[in-house]
Design brief:
34% helix; two-stranded antiparallel sheet; disordered N terminus
Length: 559
């Protein structure tokens, strides 16, 4: 860890949103030049060098980036890959041609298999892209057992209609008769365990969320390996990526993969999205009964068109009656805390959050998290923390209110906490750009993290990724893809020692600059080819036909 002599904090408004970050002159690349991956200046016409950024997202990127599973006949039988006899013989749908498989698999990507070196075995056998490493001295650590890892059990039970949704049916009847409970003034701990269902674990009201650091649920990039990185840096609360309620009820394996929890995640929740009370209620009832979670969160903040046009995410903010029915339903069917995440409103000119906050508590929510922007703003303009403070004043004691938006430093965090404009702060993009923000928050100091320390962090992520996604070709492709997704945010970090004024602000554009080393320069590159080069330093060579298209066109740089 490196602590250098740093500039004074910014106490003025001299760095408005959308301007260039104040980098020391000796590190700036001359106008009309930019650095390549070796740190050598070259002529450029990129938007970054011109002080201009494209907005929006790259459309149809999923088809380009998707990791293709391939045909079963082209994959080596799992039993044979482990040196065992296949019980299915000729009827096995997978390949039994070991020599042919090894010939097309290609050379190993590196000499060390992380799984074998750590746990003493690798379940991928000959399929592992680091199979030569299996000859080394095996590790002795016990493999941690993931929580909420169900295999296909739930899918089978859903298909056979063996899962009861009695509580959802019960609350639906209550709505018809008008006998819905009101939770005004009640503590969430004033509940008795349902003795009729031994599977259920009543966890409601056991956690005091106030003052704890909270990593926002982040689609795609908020995966389990990334959450482990943030836990390493000290975050208190983590949440799954957004899970679509209807997809969970359909038993989609990709959706159920989102609820997996690592043992290090001490306070963990699952976020659900949808637009129909009965569907969300069933999903919440199922997750509460089957999963080990401390809370279930309702997404009312997602601004993307897919969710909004289907009436979910931030579209719910335009329909308070629908929100009431959904929140009351979820509160009735779960045994854990119910939390809600929302924005100021749909339109920038029509704030509605202040009217909803006291209602959320009455309907049964334990925690609310307010992103200080409207759906219309998405991630542009500054988050409105004054309005968050107004909403906090409306929140009853029975419900904690967290705020979120533009927090990228310990100074940002403690400025909001010390002003008592909220009970806690949720950190999203700030954690993607610099996940060590949680350590800075706890220590109340800037960490001028070195380039080698940042590369070690990426190596740790890759190791966590191999534990999670695997070390076969498909697993390594997933690790590489998610590492690159994260790098599309990480490259925006400007080393603290290079800044004239601290802290770095969320929407300040980093002008082209040299780092203090070639590696620091490489980590600052906004070129996808350089990101792939970084991944190759960690995972070995990418396939010749490998292509990656980043999700964002950096629209958050617009003022």
């Amino acid at each position: 860890m490196t602590v250098s002599t740093l500039p004074e904090k910014d106490t003025t408004a001299s760095n408005p949103l959308g301007c260039d970050a104040p980098i020391k002159k000796e590190y700036l690349v001359p106008v009309g030049k930019e650095t390549n991956s070796s740190g050598t200046p070259e002529t450029t016409t990129t938007p970054a060098a011109q002080g201009k950024r494209e907005g929006g997202q790259n459309q149809n990127r999923g088809a380009v980036n998707r990791v293709r599973k391939g045909k079963k006949a082209d994959k080596l039988c799992v039993r044979l890959s482990l040196g065992e006899e296949c019980p299915h013989g000729d009827s096995c749908p997978f390949s039994h041609d070991v020599d042919g498989y090894l010939a097309q698999k290609g050379p190993d990507l590196g000499p060390v298999c992380h799984l074998h070196a750590l746990f003493g075995y690798c379940k991928y056998g000959l399929r592992c892209r680091y199979a030569e490493g299996h000859k080394a001295q095996p590790g002795t650590e016990a493999e941690p057992q993931l929580i909420n890892a169900f295999g296909n059990d739930i899918q089978i039970r859903l298909r056979k209609k063996q899962i009861s949704f009695a509580r959802t049916a019960e609350i639906e009847e209550m709505f018809k008769t008008g006998a819905v409970p009101d939770y005004s003034g009640k503590s969430n701990s004033e509940e008795s365990e349902d003795a009729g269902d031994k599977r259920r674990r009543l966890t409601r009201g056991r956690i005091d969320y106030r003052g704890k650091t909270y990593l926002a649920p982040l689609t795609t990039v908020g995966n389990l390996p990334f959450r482990r990185i943030c836990k390493d840096y000290g975050v208190d609360i983590t949440c799954s990526e957004m899970a679509i309620a209807s997809s969970l009820l359909q038993g989609q394996a990709s959706e159920w993969a989102l609820v997996k929890r690592h043992p290090s995640e001490t306070i963990f929740g699952v976020q659900l999205a949808g637009s129909k009370a009965e569907v969300i209620g069933r999903a919440a009832e199922l997750v509460s009964a089957e999963c080990e979670v401390d809370f279930i969160d309702l997404n009312m903040g997602c601004p993307i068109d897919m969710a909004f046009n289907n009436g979910g995410g931030s579209a719910l903010l335009a329909n308070p009656k629908k929100i009431e029915r959904i929140v009351r339903t979820m509160r009735h069917v779960v045994d854990c805390d119910l939390t809600v995440k929302f924005r100021t409103g749909v339109k920038s000119t029509e704030n509605v959050a202040h009217a909803l906050v006291p209602q959320f508590a009455r309907w049964g929510a334990s925690v609310g998290t307010l992103h200080g922007r409207s759906r219309q703003q998405r991630y542009t303009k500054a988050a409105d923390w004054e309005y968050i403070g107004q909403c906090h004043a409306e929140a009853p004691q029975s419900m904690a209110l967290f705020g979120g938006g533009d927090v990228m430093s310990w100074e940002d965090y403690w400025a909001h906490m010390d002003r008592a404009v909220c009970d806690g702060v949720m950190v999203g993009r700030g954690a993607l750009i610099k996940p060590w923000i949680f350590q800075e928050i706890k220590e109340r100091r800037v960490w001028d993290i070195s380039a080698s320390e940042r590369l070690d962090m990426l190596k740790t992520f890759a190791n966590y990724g191999m534990e999670h996604w695997g070390t076969d070709s498909q697993g390594i492709s997933n690790v590489r893809r998610y590492l690159l997704e994260w790098q599309s945010f990480l490259h925006r970090y400007i080393p603290a020692g290079l800044l004239e004024v601290l802290p770095q602000k969320m929407n300040q554009r980093p002008p082209a600059y040299y780092g203090r080393s070639d590696l620091e320069t490489l980590l600052a590159s906004d070129k996808v080819n350089d990101w792939i080069k970084i991944s190759e330093m960690i995972l070995g060579p990418a396939p010749d036909d490998f292509v990656f298209v980043p999700k964002h066109k950096s629209n958050s740089y617009q003022g």
